[in-house]
Structures are given as C-alpha cells and as structure tokens.
C-alpha cells in the first residue's frame, strides 16, 4: 500500500494550487458578494484541461483519473467552493455518466463539446417532491416515433442557467418504479427546454443553481443514455462518483479555513502573545489537521477504487459524510478564532462557513449517506 501521490498527481496539485492562488483567490469574495458565475475562470479551467479532465483523450479530454479530478476540486475549494462545485458537477455528474454509459455516437458527439468545445454540463434528478426519495420523480418521457417527449421540472440544478448539456432522469414507465426510470442527454437548445427559477442561496453564490422545465421537450431517441428502465441505476452510480467530488470540495473548504485561521492566529496578539501560542488554539488545530488527514484518506481511497473500476459506493458515502461534517465543524471553529472579525465580510470565514453547509445537504444529505453506508456493511 503506497500512500504517496504519484508524480503526475503531485504536478496536478501544484498546478491547481497556483491557479487557485493567482486566479481564484483574488475574486472569491467578489464572486460571493455579486453572485457572479466565475465565467472567465471556468474558461481558463477548460483551457487547462480541468473541465472534463477524466474524458478519454480520443474524445478531447485529458484521460485523467478520478483522483486527479478530486485533487483539482480540493485545491479550488480551498479558496472558492463555488468554483469547486461547478467543476465537480461538470466532471462527475455530466461527463462521467456519458463516458460510462454513452454509446459510441453519444461519446463522439458530446464529450468533445464538454471538453474542447467549452460547453458546461449539468445533472437533473431532483424534483420538488423527490429529493432524498429520488425515485419518486414525476418527470415523464413518452416515446413518439423517433423522439421522446419530456414533461416535468427539476429543481436545485447546479450549473442550471449556464449549462448546455444536461443528463436528465425521467419516467418512461410509471408502473415499474425505479425500473421505469430512464436517462437522457438533453441540450438546452432542444425545443421545450427552459430555465425556471434562479435560486438565491445561503452560500455557493458563484455556483449557478436553477429550476429546469421541460414542456413537450423533444429529445431524439438516440439521446437515451443507457437502456430504457436503467436510469435509476445510472443516477445512483453517477452519484457515487459525484460524492467523491463533494467530499473533495468539503475537504478543500476545511483546509482553506484552517490555513486562514493559522495565519490569523499567528499574527493576532491578545494577553501578550499570539493566540496561536495558547494551548486551546493548538489543540483545535491538531484536531482539524487530524480530521483533514482522515478525510483525505477516505476521499482518495474512494477515488482510487473508482479509478480501478471497483465498487466504491460505501467508501464514497463515508468520504462525503466525513468531509462535509468536518468542513462544517472546521469552518465554525476557525471562524471562532477570529472573534468578531470572523463574523464580518472582511475575512473569508463567514463565506466558508456558509459554503460548507451545503456539502451536508446536496448529492445526498448526511442522513442519506448513513442510509447508504448502513446498507453496505452487511447489516
Ligand atoms: N449503484 C448501482 N445501483 C444502485 C445503487 C448504486 N449505488 N444504489 C441503488 N442501486 C440500485 C439497487 O440495486 C436497486 O436495483 P434493483 O432494482 O435491480 O434491485 C435499485 O437501484 C433501487 O435501489 P433502492 O431500492 O435502494 O432505491 P431507493 O429508492 O430505496 O433509494 C437511496 C435509495 C440511496 C435513498 C437513493 O434514493 C438516494 O441516493 N437518494 C439521494 C438522492 C440524491 O443524492 N440526490 C441529490 C441529487 S443532486 C441534483 O439533482 C442536483 C445537483 O445538481 C447537485
């Protein structure tokens, strides 16, 4: 067992750390304040090959493995969790199911668009009455000659109002429950596709979240992803991979908060010495460092298992659960070290704490992760 990162993975981390320091950090506060999608940085991430980095080279990607993608999301999220989220969704929830389940024609058409073509991807599963109970979605797809007609709406869609390509789940046979759900590749230009409400959120202000509405939306028959009735499994498998991305995002948020707090406490003098010299501060940092190490091991383990083509459902759920709770705890404790300053927008801690909260909710709440873990430990 080798716990060292390969040279390639170390280079990926170095490249992304530099990008984060030079391009992401300077605009992170403004992105949060203005709720602006960080378009220029996403374009640069396309140019660097990070958007769609796991897409095989023959389809325009970098042919990177899931660990490399996780490292990128972790580094970006140290300074801007919104940017990490946009990349995680594009790579894990849109490119990945097309790589895994797409036909040769689908891969040849859509993967180059999602890499060299700079088109952003999204994933549409959640509905107003189908959140944790994802199988209860009401969006329907009816076959009509050479196309399907989709009707319904999806909510909380990350990249919703900037994406061009959507992996969408809809019922093709309501009588069959989870086995009546199918997956489709839908373009925003298809007739009957529209973007509904833009969400105003507590955090992740740079990550565009929207409702997606299908009104007699015409989807060519050849855009069925995988077989009819296999959509729920595709959704679950995709979310297994997506949860590695959210674990990496949460880990990055925690690491970023800890870095900020360490720098601050070394310079903040109270009672005659830097507050980093008080044992209470040091013990808090010791716990944070230990939890980051544990979260990193869980996350990288899940990513390596995915890269090896092994089952990683339980490991991804554990990584996401652990890292998201770590992010929430760490941002809270780090903010506390700043005292009143931490509660202001002069420092990034209040943003990091707001951003951390969503990692306990989306791509399966912490409760759902416990359902998945308990269902996979032989009970
Ligand atoms: N991999 C492969 N197959 C899986 C699987 C997995 N990880 N998990 C379940 N399945 C299969 C089962 O084997 C079963 O197959 P059979 O029909 O052959 O028996 C089928 O799927 C149904 O499984 P369950 O009976 O376990 O399904 P369930 O209805 O009880 O739901 C659940 C299970 C884990 C609770 C699931 O509903 C779930 O993960 N819920 C959370 C959904 C979620 O994370 N939503 C966030 C989406 S993100 C989004 O939409 C917006 C965005 O942009 C971020």
What is the count of structural domains?
3
CATH class of the largest domain: Mainly Alpha
Mean pLDDT: 98
Radius of gyration: 21 Å
Question: What is the CATH third-level topology name of the largest domain?
Answer: Butyryl-CoA Dehydrogenase, subunit A, domain 3
Family: Belongs to the acyl-CoA dehydrogenase family.
Domain Acyl-CoA dehydrogenase/oxidase C-terminal: 229-374
Domain Acyl-CoA dehydrogenase/oxidase N-terminal: 7-117
GO molecular function, one term: flavin adenine dinucleotide binding
Index terms:
single chain, 379 residues, alpha+beta, Butyryl-Coa Dehydrogenase, subunit A, domain 1, Butyryl-CoA Dehydrogenase, subunit A, domain 2, Butyryl-CoA Dehydrogenase, subunit A, domain 3, four-stranded mixed beta sheet, binds acetoacetyl-coenzyme A
């Amino acid at each position: 067992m080798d716990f060292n990162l390969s040279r390639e993975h170390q280079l990926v981390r170095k490249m992304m750390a530099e990008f984060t320091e030079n391009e992401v950090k300077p605009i992170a506060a403004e992105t949060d304040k203005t709720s602006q999608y960080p378009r220029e940085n996403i374009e640069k991430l396309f140019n660097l090959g990070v958007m769609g980095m796991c897409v095989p080279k023959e389809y325009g990607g970098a042919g990177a493995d899931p660990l490399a993608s996780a490292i990128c999301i972790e580094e970006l999220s140290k300074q801007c969790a919104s940017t990490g989220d946009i990349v995680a969704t594009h790579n894990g929830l849109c490119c990945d199911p097309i790589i895994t389940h797409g036909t040769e024609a689908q891969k040849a058409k859509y993967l180059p668009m999602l890499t060299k073509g700079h088109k952003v991807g999204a994933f549409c599963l959640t509905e107003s009455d189908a959140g944790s109970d994802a199988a209860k979605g009401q969006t329907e797809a009816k076959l009509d000659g050479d196309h399907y007609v989709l009707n319904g709406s999806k909510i909380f869609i990350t990249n919703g109002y900037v994406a061009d390509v959507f992996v969408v789940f809809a019922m093709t046979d309501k009588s069959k429950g989870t086995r009546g759900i199918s997956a489709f590749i839908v373009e925003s230009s298809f007739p009957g596709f529209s973007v509904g409400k833009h969400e105003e959120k507590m955090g992740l202000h740079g990550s565009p979240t929207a409702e997606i509405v299908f009104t007699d939306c015409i989807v060519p028959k050849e855009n069925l992803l995988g077989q009819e009735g296999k959509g729920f499994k595709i959704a679950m498998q995709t979310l297994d991979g997506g949860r590695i991305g959210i674990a990496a995002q949460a880990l990055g948020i925690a690491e970023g908060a800890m870095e900020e707090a360490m720098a601050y406490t070394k310079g903040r003098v109270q009672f005659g010495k830097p507050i980093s010299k008080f044992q209470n501060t040091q013990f808090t940092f010791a716990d944070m460092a230990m939890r980051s190490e544990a979260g990193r091991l869980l996350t990288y383990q899940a990513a390596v298992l995915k890269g090896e083509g092994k089952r990683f459902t339980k490991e991804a759920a554990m990584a996401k659960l652990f890292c998201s709770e770590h992010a929430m705890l760490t941002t809270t404790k780090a903010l506390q070290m700043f005292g009143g300053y931490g509660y202001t927008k002069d420092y990034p801690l209040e943003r990091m704490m707001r951003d951390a909260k969503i990692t306990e909710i989306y791509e399966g709440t912490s409760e759902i992760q416990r359902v998945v873990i308990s269902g996979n430990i032989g009970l």
